[in-house]
Design brief:
The structure holds two protein chains of two kinds. Chain A is an alpha/beta fold. Chain A is built from eleven helices and eleven strands. In chain A, 36% of the residues lie in helices and 24% in strands. The chains are: A alpha/beta, B alpha/beta.
Chain lengths: 288, 250
């Protein structure tokens, strides 16, 4: 792992939405860096984890605003670059995989067409080469008979296959950072692991940085190197995935204990008691 | 007497060449007061079984009896009181323009209750909401609170059997824990029988005593929760499912 220079460097990121009843702060000043590693961001709905992922790609729509002291990819300031450059970076350098392939694949384009489109937006390659690379990529995500799948439409593939197609499409232009926002929560348990294994293998082989956003602490612990736990728009705890069992913040412990566990049954599940002090505590920095 | 007896249940959609079988030759029994789980992948037919019991699956054949009543095309008023369903997504299953009060009183009105006013207060207390929530609209409630309202609605006609279709999969883990505790309490309090569908073996293992594993429209195995915890499954598919669910940190 190459630790000397981070790919992404984010300091004091804030995402705000102006509403009729005042300003809503979705992300309240978080700082983290991403090297060639797998970083997990965990939290409940509304904790700001998805907003963080979108803010990196400047995908927050008005009335939302993004502010940060620093948000840089390889030293290039993402906040000040013009929209034209941002479009090159999106998909080209930083890619995002969304939750449900049913909504993120274009329903009226064949799988192959949209993969080729994604590639040719970022690289000038001939149609024939784009096709060959798309098929090779489909094979890499363990799709049997990629030439057949190339001509299928999204409604003709299963959820697990759809998500693998998404992964293939996103990795095709060789980005350096992949943001995966709940990539498997719309899938069945039995295919979840398979899809994650494929994503994990490709990310490691290519030495990419991965931001894995999920609500499932156990899953993140298995697939990430470092874990950031978010609560109410702030980071409450940062730890190595291997040291999650030694986590100390009551919120982290609460999340861990509220999961019903097949191997260790409990009479009653622990219910998270929220402490208002967590919301006010300053954000922990996840910069390395 | 068992609460639910199902023999050779078939459910299908479409006809002729278009016909697709959603449930094939499924048989099981659920005893009074038992909690029975159905697990399997999406498309394996687990929710369709619940819909067939409830009477909202269009085409089915086989023998289904609920508390001694053999079900046919027409079902008695008693059946609709006895069997209630809780759906997966509390964001979709509550009418957005009706208050909690309206949702609950409509159900009770349909089933001929007269002391609706005092019952609503008790129901809301039962599901841990309190009467402060009585005149709220769904958009004023969080996901967990909505699911509590959906459970209150299901409990309103004093049913004996609750059919739970992925009752917690749209919720956060911390809220899921609250709802699972609530379901366990209500079952003990009202002596309810549960049939629960879920893709999460942890959830099913927590609430159910016996679990049926489904794959491509058929039940491949029925096993007790004890066997499941010890990973004693005979069928390779069940073993695969169990292995993919075990990933806890502690």
């Amino acid at each position: 792992m190459n630790d000397d220079k981070p790919l992404l460097d984010i300091e004091n990121l804030q995402v705000r939405f102006a509403t009729r009843t005042g300003t809503f702060e979705a992300v309240r000043g978080i700082s983290f860096t991403l090297g060639r590693e797998r970083l997990g961001i965990v939290g409940e709905s509304g904790s700001g984890k998805s907003m963080t992922g979108r803010a990196i790609l400047r995908l927050i729509r008005s009335p939302g605003t993004i502010e940060a002291d620093r948000m840089a990819l390889h030293g290039e300031d993402l906040l000040s670059v013009p929209e034209k450059r941002m479009r090159q970076l999106r998909g080209g350098k930083i890619s995002m995989i969304m939750q449900d392939p049913k909504f993120s694949l274009n329903p009226v384009m064949s799988v192959g067409q949209q993969m080729v489109e994604a590639l040719r937006t970022h690289e000038s390659v001939s149609k024939a080469e784009a096709r060959a690379r798309a098929i090779a990529m489909l094979e890499e995500v363990s799709i049997r008979d990629p030439e057949r799948v190339y001509d299928l439409f999204p409604h003709e593939v299963s959820g697990g296959m759809g998500q693998r197609i998404m992964i293939a499409m996103m990795l095709l232009p060789n980005p350096e950072v992949l943001i995966a926002d709940e990539p498997t929560s719309a899938l069945d348990v039995s295919v979840q692991l398979q899809v994650l294994d494929i994503m994990d293998r490709l990310v490691r082989e290519r030495g990419m940085g991965l931001i894995f956003i999920s609500h499932d602490l156990n899953l993140v612990a298995k697939f990430c190197d470092r874990i950031v736990i978010m609560y109410a728009g702030r980071i409450v705890e940062v730890c190595k995935a291997s040291e999650l069992r030694n986590a100390s913040h009551p919120y982290t412990l609460g999340l861990l204990n509220s999961v019903p566990d097949l191997e260790h049954p409990r009479e009653r599940l622990e219910v998270l008691q929220r402490d208002p002090a967590w919301r006010e505590a300053p954000s922990v920095s996840a910069r390395t | 007497m068992s609460a639910i007896t199902i023999r050779n249940l078939n459910v299908w959609f479409g006809a002729g060449a278009e016909r697709s079988d959603a449930v094939k030759d499924v048989s099981f029994d659920v005893a009074e007061g038992e909690s029975f789980g159905l697990v399997g992948e999406s498309g394996s037919g687990k929710s369709t079984i619940l819909r067939a019991i409830e009477g909202i699956a269009p085409n089915w054949s086989g023998h289904v009896s609920i508390a001694g009543e053999v079900l046919g095309k027409r079902r008695s008023r008693q059946f609709y009181r006895n069997v209630q369903m809780v759906f997966q997504d509390p964001y979709a299953s509550l009418h957005p323009r009706q208050t909690v009060d309206r949702v609950l009183s409509e159900v009770m009105g349909l089933h001929g209750f007269t002391d609706i006013d005092s019952r609503i207060g008790r129901l809301l207390d039962d599901v841990g909401l309190g009467s402060g929530f009585r005149f709220r609209y769904p958009h004023q409630l969080s996901g967990g609170q909505r699911q509590r309202v959906a459970i209150a609605r299901a409990l309103a006609p004093e049913p004996r059997i609750l059919l739970l279709d992925e009752p917690t999969s749209a919720l956060d883990v911390s809220v899921q824990a609250e709802i699972l505790n609530l379901l366990a309490d209500l079952r003990a309090e009202h002596n309810l029988t549960y049939v629960m569908v879920s893709h999460d073996l942890g959830v099913v293992g927590h609430l159910c005593e016996r679990i049926a594993v489904m794959k491509s429209a058929e039940i491949v195995e029925v096993l007790g929760v004890g066997e499941m915890r010890k990973l004693e499954a005979n069928d390779p598919y069940t073993r695969h499912l169990l292995e993919s669910s075990i990933h806890s940190v502690r």
